[in-house]
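Cross-check.
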Amino acid sequence: MESLENGIQKLVEELKENFDSHKYDLIISDDLSGRLLSLVVKKILDKVPGSAKKVPVSFILGGKYVGNHDEDGEAGSILKEALAEKVIDHKNLLIVTEYIKDATTIGRLITSLYRIEDENGLKFSIDVAALGVNEATVQFAERLVWPGKFFFGGYSEPRFLTEDSHKSVLGVTTDDQNFDITPIVDTNAESDEIQKIRGDVNLISEKIYKRVWEKEIK
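Predicted model, tokenized:
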């Protein structure tokens, strides 16, 4: 995870103004690949001076795990209902993911949030943060009729948790057959590896916070 540190720092620097103004009241983590990045972002956000309370993070599976069903189908309804439970008491949302290849997952999440707005008389502010994107995705996003902003750490694909071999460190997994939107405990996960990665999350969060806010160079 240390190899991603520079990209995470660049992403956080892009988000700093919004963090300083305490804009966000909920982080939506695009699981599984966005889980560790979301935890780093949350830990940094919670350190920002003047925070009245810690910002919660909600983990949700919005990508390939819900199947290639349209938004009006079973999976789309499950996603919308699961999201509604998480966001109903919030207004300013930050969706965090590891890598945006074609914006399909992010588009699915944003579309679901728009439907929740319409059905409940709500109005969200929605921003998206990604460690990596491809240039075509940024161009696509700029054409969207969407008032939110994209923040990203670079144009390369991180390839850390997008590879199945790394997912055992998360401690959670998916139920691909039942369109589960919430991750389930991975009984095959290695506890030592999980503890190590949690330590890495804490260490990287602390280092980046000090560099960006306290201007320490280490």
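Strands lie at 26-31, 57-61, 92-100, 125-133, 150-152, 172-173, 184-185. The CA atoms of residues 11 and 25 lie 18 Å apart. Passed to J.P. for a second look.
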